């Protein structure tokens, strides 16, 4: 009985983890991309792209903080293949969006 309770306590939904932070970053970037494409954001043209790049950078900084904390506190820092693929998406979405915006700006000149 005690073993089951200990395992249940270890899986709380509010504990910050790599997968949860990557999921939140993907949702935020996807929302920014969708809102900018449909014209729902009352922001100037480059702001959503800049926000998406900032979210990707903040996610990389958070993962670096996880890594440093794991070394200092002797935690096991591990992530799944799903988290690795999500991290690739978190970085690839703003990079491709920024590249498309730069190409569009160069065509306008």
Strand elements, count = 0
- Overall pLDDT metric: 77
- Report the uncertain regions: none
Quaternary structure: single chain
- Number of domains as seen in the coordinates: 1
Q: What is the structural class?
A: mainly alpha
Helix share, percent: over 70%
For the termini, the CA-CA separation is 70 Å
Note the overall shape. Answer: elongated
Written as H for each helix and E for each strand, in order along the chain, the element string is: HHHH
Q: Rounded to an integer, what's the Rg over CA atoms?
A: 18 Å
Strand content: under 5%
Largest sheet features = none
How many helix segments? 4
Features:
109 residues, mainly alpha, 0% strand
Report on this model:
By secondary structure, the protein is mainly alpha-helical. It has one domain (15-108). Helices cover 78% and strands 0% of the residues. The longest helix has 28 residues, at 81-108.
Describe the secondary-structure layout.
Blueprint: H1 2-10, H2 18-38, H3 47-73, H4 81-108
Helix pairs in contact: 2-3, 2-4, 3-4
Short description:
By secondary structure, the chain is mainly α.
């Amino acid at each position: 009985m005690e073993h089951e309770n200990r395992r249940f306590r270890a899986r709380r939904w509010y504990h910050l983890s790599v997968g949860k932070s990557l999921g939140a970053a993907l949702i935020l970037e996807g929302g920014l991309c969708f809102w900018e494409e449909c014209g729902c954001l009352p922001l100037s043209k480059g702001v959503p792209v800049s926000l998406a790049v900032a979210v990707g950078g903040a996610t990389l900084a958070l993962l670096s903080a996880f890594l440093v904390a794991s070394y200092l506190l002797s935690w096991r820092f591990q992530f799944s293949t799903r988290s690795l693929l999500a991290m690739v998406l978190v970085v690839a979405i703003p990079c491709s969006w920024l590249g498309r915006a730069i190409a569009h700006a160069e065509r306008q000149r």
